[in-house]
Structure formats: C-alpha cells, structure tokens
Amino acid sequence: MISVLFVCLGNICRSPLAEGLFKMHVNEQGLKDFFTIDSAGTAAYHLGELADKRTREMAVRQDSLSLSHKARQFVANDFFSFDYIVAMDKTNYQNVIMLKPLQGTAKVLMMRHYDSKNITEEIIPDPYYGTTKDFEEVHKLLKDCTKNLLQAIVEEKSIAL
Ligand code: 4NP
Questions:
Q1: Active site residue: 8, 13, 54, 89, which one?
Q2: Helix ranges, the chain (H)
Q3: Which of 6, 8, 9, 14 to mutate to test the pocket of ligand 1 (most atoms within 8 A of CB)?
Q4: What is the CA(96)–ligand 1 centre distance, in A?
Q5: Separation of CA 72 from chain center
Q6: What pTM does this model have?
Q7: Contact 73, 40 (CB under 8 A)
Q8: Which tens digits make up the pLDDT trace of 88-123?
Q9: Beta-bridge partner residues of 36
C-alpha cells in the first residue's frame, strides 16, 4: 500500500479537500487498492469536526464530492504510518518537520509544487477568513495539484496503469 497524508492548520478547509480530491483521482484511475489516504491538522482547534461547510458545499458544487473526514491532529507517529506527508503551506511544513522523529521515514512534500501552471507561488492559501471566491480558487488549485501528485507517485512507485 502507498500511504499519503495531507496536512494543513485546522484540518477543516484545505487538507480534507485535498484528501477527498486525491481519493477521487485515485478512484477514477482504478487505483483504490493501492492507496491509504488521510488528512490531519497541525492545530487542535477543530478536532472531530467535519470539514468547513463552505469547503463541503464547494466540493459538492464542483465535483459532486461528499467530504466525510473528521478533523484530527497531526502526530509524530504519522512519520512512520505514511509514505508521503503533503503540507499546504510553509508553516504547516515547518510544524510537521519539527515533530519528525529521528528514524521517521515519510517524505515531506509541498502541495503547491504539483501545480501545473504555477512557477513562483509556493503555498495553497488558507481560505478560512476569505470569501466564496477564495474557496473556489482553493478547490481549483487542489484539484490540479492532487492530480499531478498522483501522477508523480504513480511514476515514482512504477505502478503499471
Ligand atoms: P485549514 O484552514 O488549515 O485549511 O483547515 C483553517 C481552519 C481553521 C482555522 C485556520 C485555518 N482556525 O483558525 O480556526
């Protein structure tokens, strides 16, 4: 199994959506049996909550995607449970790296590095204090980045499609 964990701050806007969209691409490509996919937040503000209503509404509107993940906090042990940890912004990245155990095996990646169009911006912006347009933009970005990430993992792991 290949395991992928998406990480943001609250685990209610960006990372549960990245998890849902990555699962959607995996299912569309018939790769469900190869993957374990989850998400987590570096903070504990929203433990046990479903994704933000605005994120869930946009996911249904754009992709008929129902998000059922309940927020949990990132833990150091995730470095042993997952092959890839994918951070949404630089603060998430640093907070994840700070918890890395010496023998931790996961590769830590930045989500925005998989944007097909982007050449300079490094982060998936946090839409929590933003507008509907911001949630729409994050949805579009994550749909593209998660698709390209899946492609990169398929190539790295030499999965025959
Ligand atoms: P996320 O967005 O990290 O994409 O889930 C946020 C959610 C909640 C808060 C901040 C960002 N908060 O401050 O409660």
A1: 8
A2: 14-28, 53-63, 78-81, 90-98, 132-156
A3: 9
A4: 16
A5: 13
A6: 0.97
A7: yes
A8: 999 999 999 999 999 999 999 999 999 999 778 999
A9: 3
